[in-house]
Design brief:
The protein is mainly α and 183 residues long. The protein has one domain: Orthogonal Bundle (Transferase(Phosphotransferase), domain 1). 43% of the residues lie in helices and 5% in strands. The chain is built from eight helices and four strands. The strands form two sheets. Strands 1-4 form a two-stranded antiparallel sheet. A hairpin with a 5-residue loop joins β2 and β3. α2 runs antiparallel to α4 and α4 runs antiparallel to α6. The relative contact order is 0.17. The mean pLDDT is 91. Belongs to the protein kinase superfamily. CAMK Ser/Thr protein kinase family. Smok subfamily. It is an enzyme of class 2 (transferase). InterPro entries: Kinase-like_dom_sf, Prot_kinase_dom, Ser/Thr_kinase_AS. Its EC number is 2.7.11.1.
Amino acid sequence: GEVFDYLVSHGRMKEKEARAKFRQIVSAVHYCHQKNIVHRDLKAENLLLDADANIKIADFGFSNEFTLGSKLDTFCGSPPYAAPELFQGKKYDGPEVDVWSLGVILYTLVSGSLPFDGQNLKELRERVLRGKYRIPFYMSTDCENLLKKFLILNPSKRGTLEQIMKDRWMNVGHEDDELKPYV
């Protein structure tokens, strides 16, 4: 099934469970980026759970090869997960739009809702471009601090997956299990 369906039927995940899933997601996306592939449509509906509840990333229909120094310009993906630069029609390198989407996914796993939503596309666009989202009272400070590395309006200031993989929240309970690209 999809992570989306899981969230609909079970509600938000406890941070420990979200961390286990999110570590797999980040590792898999990092692997893609190392192979110069940007997904561009990361969302809960494209994260599948296998029989052992391991994450599988699906739907590479919008994925593309990226080369450092060569910009992409196609608006791809699902608007609630789309980076602000996509709404602005700006050219982008690639990985940074996946990083933004991963931030939206983390928020969704931990809260059971989207950080940016609207009655229509115009309202959603305005909220994404403002970059303001509500931190639920139950979210840990470490999780909030990690989110702030993803959901940064300026793409050049956004965290890299290498930095994010070393983040404190990502590694709670996994101190002896360094996060590496999923192969």
